[in-house]
């Protein structure tokens, strides 16, 4: 079993009894994995990307426990520590990989500074899932396409999923 598969199973257990979060996580992971492969990211970046997608929302539970609610900023605040703890417990991650994964978890709701490809792909994959799960309007989908999406494959997936004709 690969480290990513071990992490996926650990996150299934972490979100035990919460099928909505489990479904969200697995969908974001699947889209990010596909976008990364289509964009030709190197093996280490793909590993970091896929690992980060599996733990990207790990801060939800900690936020709810600590604050009684959660939102994107609280997820970014509480997520890195929870992700680090899980990654260290599982083993097989270098310090550099853990740092990068935790950085991605701590920024995945911050959209204005998105220069690294793994970061961009994580954000796009999360949007692909959130736009559908939140039943967003066509105007919202167009705005996200215009303002957020940068990769060719992520943009094509968004356009195909939501039936967008290129502007």
Tell me briefly what this model is:
By secondary structure, the chain is mainly alpha-helical. Helices cover 74% and strands 0% of the residues.
Descriptive notes:
The chain is an all-alpha fold. The protein has a single domain (3-162), classed as Hypothetical protein af1432. Helix content is 74%, strand content 0%. The chain contains nine helices and no strands. The protein has helices at 3-14, 19-39, 43-55, 59-67, 72-90, 95-105, 117-133, 138-147, 152-162. The model has no long low-confidence stretch (mean pLDDT 93).
Structural class: mainly alpha
Helical residues, percent: over 70%
- In the CATH hierarchy, the third-tier topology is known as Hypothetical protein af1432
The total of beta strands comes to: 0
Provide the succession of SSEs.
Answer: HHHHHHHHH
3D shape: globular
Any idea what the radius of gyration is? 15 Å
Helix tally equals 9
> At the fourth CATH level, what is the homologous superfamily?
Hypothetical protein af1432
Distance between the termini: 44 Å
| Uncertain parts | none
Largest sheet composition: none
The average pLDDT score comes to 93
Number of domains: 1
Q: Please report the first level of CATH classification, the CATH class.
A: Mainly Alpha
Strand content bin: under 5%
CATH architecture assignment name: Orthogonal Bundle
């Amino acid at each position: 079993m690969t480290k990513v598969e071990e992490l996926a199973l650990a996150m299934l257990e972490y979100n035990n009894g919460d099928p909505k979060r489990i479904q969200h996580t697995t969908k974001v992971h699947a889209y990010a994995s596909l976008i990364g492969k289509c964009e030709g990211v190197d093996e280490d970046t793909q590993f970091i990307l896929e690992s980060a997608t599996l733990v990207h929302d790990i801060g939800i539970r900690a936020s709810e426990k600590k604050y009684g609610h959660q939102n994107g900023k609280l997820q970014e605040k509480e997520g890195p520590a929870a992700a680090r703890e899980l990654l260290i417990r599982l083993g097989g991650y270098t310090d550099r990989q853990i740092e990068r994964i935790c950085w991605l978890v701590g920024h995945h709701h911050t959209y204005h500074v998105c220069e690294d490809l793994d970061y961009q792909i994580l954000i796009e994959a999360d949007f692909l899932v959130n736009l559908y799960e939140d039943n967003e309007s066509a105007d919202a989908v167009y705005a996200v396409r215009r303002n957020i999406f940068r990769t060719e494959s992520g943009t094509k997936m968004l356009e195909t999923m939501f039936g967008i004709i290129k502007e």
